[in-house]
Amino acid sequence: MAGAADRLLESYLSCIRTTLDAALCLRNFASQDVERHNKPEVECSEGKNIANPDADGHGGLVLPPIVIHKGGADKIQIEVAVNSVRVSIAVKQQDDIEKMIGRKFMQFMMRRAESFHVLRKVPVQGYDISLLITNFHMEKLVKVKVIEFVCEFISNIYSDIMEIKLALNSRGRSVADNYLSSFSQ
Asked: pTM of the full predicted structure?
């Protein structure tokens, strides 16, 4: 079973790698809304994408989002613009414990968003955590390393949540054993 889960995660990450490799062809592009500013188009386009032209009939600078499902609620959304890419991640949380651990873990990560440079402080609605990669990141960083960071970040999220859940369950079990042993004496 673990082998099948590992193969599923590897194929999921392979699909993400391929998509990000194609999406991270970013270039410097001045904002069309504010003169002399370079804002990430993915953040300020608000629904104007190539598939949804505005009133003038011109499309925006944002492609329609790409959603990759692993199964269930595990999914990733990649929004591509001319000068930025937003990667939003939703992690499947099966029970209340996983929901609580996931929520606390994501809050912990988002409080430290400045340390990660590409991590957004507020995720896209419907997702647990979001990353924003701009053309400035791509000018300073190596494309392959950015893709590997995103894939490793995703796989670490899954493993960290499972590890925390196992530690919580074993701690709860030892507390219950100590509590119940006090009644048996």
From this structure: 0.82
For the ranges 3-7, 39-43, 46-50, the one whose mean pLDDT is highest = 39-43
- Would you state the torsion angle of the CA atoms of residues 13, 17, 18, 20, taken in this order, to the nearest 10 degrees? 130
Strand 84-90 and strand 129-134: pairing? antiparallel
Q: What are 22's two structure tokens? A: 């194609």
> For residue 68, what are its two tokens?
């990759």
Concatenate the DSSP letters of all residues of 115-176 into one string.
Answer: HHSSB-SSPPTT-SEEEEEEHHHHHHS-HHHHHHHHHHHHHHHHHHHHHHHHHHHHHHHHHH
* Residues 77-112: tens digit of each pLDDT: 999 998 899 999 998 888 888 888 888 888 888 888
**Interval 126-140: pLDDT, tens:** 898 899 999 998 999
| Residues ≥6 apart with Cβ < 8 Å to 45 | 60, 61, 62, 81
Give the number of other Cβ atoms within 10 Å of residue 79's Cβ. 25
d(CA 122, CA 131): 10
Per-residue pLDDT tens over the stretch 152-164: 998 888 888 889 9
Instruction: Report, in this order, helix, strand and coil percent for the chain, each rounded to 5.
Output: 50, 15, 35
**Residue 86: beta bridge partners?**
79, 132
Start-to-end Cα distance in the chain: 42
